[in-house]
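Class, look over these structure tokens:
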Amino acid sequence: MAKKKDEVRVTPPRETGRVVRRVFPGPDAGGTPLRVNFDRQAYADLTGHAKESVDAEVGGVLVGEICEDGDGLFVDVRAVIRALAAREARAHITFTHETWTKIHAVLDRDYPDLQIVGWYHTHPGFGVEFSAMDRFIQENFFSGRAQIAFLTDPLGGDTALCFNGAKGIEALSRFWVDGREHKARVPASQSASTAVENAAPGDVRRDIERLEARISQLIQAVDEQRTNFYRVLMTVVVFVCAGIITWVGYAIWSDRMDQLEPPRVQSYVPVPMTIGGETVMLGIGIVNWKVPPRLDALITRAAQAEVELREMQRQELLKLQQERQQKKTKPKK
């Protein structure tokens, strides 16, 4: 239901207060303040509707009869009516006036002999703890002595029920579907002693089995996380090792390929020159010298440095010449 009070726009559901004499379909349920039994098809429709949306809350009303036997009152839910035209959001659902109009129209048309015995809604991914607004709606709009609130989490699979007890809203620890017992989660606000007193030995055994199953699931989840961590770690190690091997191989290959080889003579051109009145033949050789890229870069930088040095020397020489020229042309006093 809605989480904000100003968003709750509902009208009180129709409640005739009829009580039918009928035998409870389940076994003896001593210690349960109010017994709730769902028709199989009604419970299937409810769970199906709850699982249709995991992004927004959905809800509706529970239709059935309030019955009585030798052990007291019990609620027999025979059908559910979806809250059509309700404003659904991730954290609330609002029953509008149009929603209630459609609910009563379906109730009068399809279930004229039944009455509204409660309501249901979902908390997808938020657990089954009744919020303050849920309790407000139950106390003010479903305040009948046997009207119930059914809450389910379609992601977690938990369910919770409450009813209007003598001391306010009370939680129910179990309910029945065609006479077969189902467990309901008791809110954390309810004392543990009450739950233990109302639980039968078989319930305690089933709780232990459920706890063991949860522990097994947790252990399995931890093992899967550990396996995934090791898998990711091994992948990272493999990539790092591959990178190191590639870098070492490239360094070895570059060292062998960058070896400095002596120049190779490609051609020889004789040039006659006169030295001391004698003509001699000198040769000019054209060579091919393959310089490795790293040495070529060093040679280039050295050549640039030599050019810059010669330029500086030339500038200094020009400056000296200018100073000398100025001294010569300076008139004597």
